[in-house]
Design brief:
Layout: H1 2-25, E1 29-37, H2 53-58, E2 70-71, E3 77-78, E4 81-84, E5 99-104, E6 107-109, E7 112-116, E8 120-125, E9 131-136, E10 143-146, E11 152-156, E12 161-168, E13 175-181, E14 186-188, E15 194-200, E16 203-211, E17 215-223, E18 228-230, E19 233-235
Parallel strand pairs: 1-18, 1-19, 5-8, 7-13
Antiparallel strand pairs: 1-15, 2-3, 4-14, 4-16, 5-6, 8-11, 9-10, 9-12, 12-13, 16-17
């Protein structure tokens, strides 16, 4: 028996080294797709900024609308948060670059974004008027006033949350959302409705598309090494 174990040990070690090498060289797969809306979307409501004369001055000559549903003429939907619902083990650090929310023209830019636990949120006031940004959250709570242009606020996101809502107590029309995840496998759809998530570990997952006024849709997907899986989401009229 001892002699037999000695003869098998080199083979087992070779197999282990091979498996570790394969794992080290693995880059995962890619998820891509598009979000569309069927039917004719409702007209975005016009924001009445009369409550703050400064906001009226800042937006002089422009009509600003709520961007809770941004649909192009071809039905493409922007500002949809795409993320893998599953808790995927991830040993890497969060991005060093913060997620930036700019208060400009008395609205948030961008309206929807994504971040990782441990990543910093940077909030900037670019308006010469008072803003007060508040997180509608118990997991990642803050409530900070920024009375004039040039002020910045940094906050380290501590817990996963889909979605973290941002509000301004001074201007009730100001709304924003951040999807906070424990892994980097998420994206936000662009103006053309497309999204792309790269480097996803091989496996079976639930991919979710979340829209502010559209709700959420789930898709069961399988990611294979070095391959791209296409997942399209189609939302019906509200």
């Amino acid at each position: 028996m001892p002699h037999r174990m000695k003869t098998r040990l080199p083979a087992l070690l070779s197999l282990l080294v091979f498996m570790l090498a394969v794992q080290a060289g693995a880059t995962g797969g890619t998820i891509e797709g598009k979000v569309t809306f069927t039917g004719k979307p409702r007209r975005s409501p016009l924001i009445q900024m009369g409550a703050d004369p400064n906001c009226l001055t800042i937006n002089a000559g422009r009509k600003t609308v709520q961007q809770d549903l941004v649909v192009s003429r071809d039905g493409s939907v922007a500002n949809v948060f795409l993320h893998i619902v599953d808790d995927i083990p991830y040993g890497g650090p969060p991005p060093a670059e913060p997620v930036t929310i700019e208060q400009e023209g008395c609205i948030y830019h961008p309206r929807v974004s994504g971040a990782m636990i441990g990543q910093y949120l940077n909030v900037r006031n670019n308006d010469n008027t008072l803003h007060n940004i508040r997180a509608q959250s118990e997991a990642n709570f803050f409530n900070v006033g920024q009375p004039f242009s040039g002020l910045e606020f940094d906050f380290r996101l501590e817990k996963a949350e889909v979605m973290l809502q941002l509000k301004c107590d001074v201007h009730d029309w100001m709304v924003g959302y951040i999807g906070v995840k424990s892994h980097p496998y998420f994206a936000v759809s662009g103006k053309d409705g497309t999204f792309r998530i790269e480097g996803v570990p091989v496996g079976r997952y639930t991919l979710q598309a979340w829209g502010e006024t559209l709700g959420a849709q789930d898709r069961e997907i399988e990611v294979k090494e070095g391959e791209t899986v296409t997942v399209d989401f189609v939302f019906p009229p509200e």
